[in-house]
């Protein structure tokens, strides 16, 4: 699955951004899609995911501020980010997981989009 992320940029504290990830595969058939974040000098960590049945999962630090959604007709997954904080700064990577009927899991990553939140 090829993933193309977009929407990053520079925003002030308290501002909002919307990230989008376009997939080359029928997003409704992907087991999980979502976003991870890598802050400068840190590991890549989960931000939010959504499964094929619509179940969402959020990191505690973003739970009440970010919303993940799928647009099946467009094969995209969006991340609406509000009330952004400087600690939200990082490269955001789109993620997709496909599990085949033979239970083989494939994971793919987009190229990342940079979000910078200034204080």
Can you give a write-up of this model?
- It is a single chain.
- The protein has no helices and eleven strands.
- The protein has 119 residues and is mainly β.
- Strands 2, 4, 5, 6, 9, 10 and 11 form a seven-stranded mixed beta sheet that branches.
- It is elongated and about 50 Å long.
- The protein starts with a strand and ends with a strand.
Determine the strand fraction and express it as a percent band: over 45%
**Low-pLDDT segments, ≥5 res:** none
- The SSE order reads EEEEEEEEEEE
Distance between the termini: 36 Å
Given the structure, what is the number of helices? 0
Looking at this protein, list some descriptive labels:
119 residues; mainly beta; 4-stranded antiparallel beta sheet; 11 strands
Summarize the topology.
Blueprint: E1 3-6, E2 9-12, E3 17-23, E4 32-38, E5 44-51, E6 56-58, E7 66-71, E8 76-81, E9 90-99, E10 105-109, E11 113-118
Parallel strand pairs: 2-11
Antiparallel strand pairs: 1-3, 3-8, 4-5, 4-9, 5-6, 7-8, 9-10, 9-11
What's this, in brief?
By secondary structure, the chain is mostly beta strands. It is built from no helices and eleven strands.
């Amino acid at each position: 699955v090829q993933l193309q992320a977009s929407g990053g940029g520079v925003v002030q504290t308290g501002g909002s951004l919307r990230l989008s990830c376009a997939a080359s595969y029928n997003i409704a058939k992907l087991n999980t899609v979502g976003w991870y974040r890598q802050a400068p000098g840190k590991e890549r960590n989960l931000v939010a995911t959504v499964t094929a049945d619509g179940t969402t999962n959020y990191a505690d630090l973003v739970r009440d501020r970010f919303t993940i959604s799928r647009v099946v007709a467009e094969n995209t997954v969006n991340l609406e980010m509000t009330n952004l904080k400087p600690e939200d700064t990082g490269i955001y990577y789109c993620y997709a997981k496909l599990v085949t009927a033979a239970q083989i899991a494939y994971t793919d990553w987009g190229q990342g989009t940079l979000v910078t939140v200034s204080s």
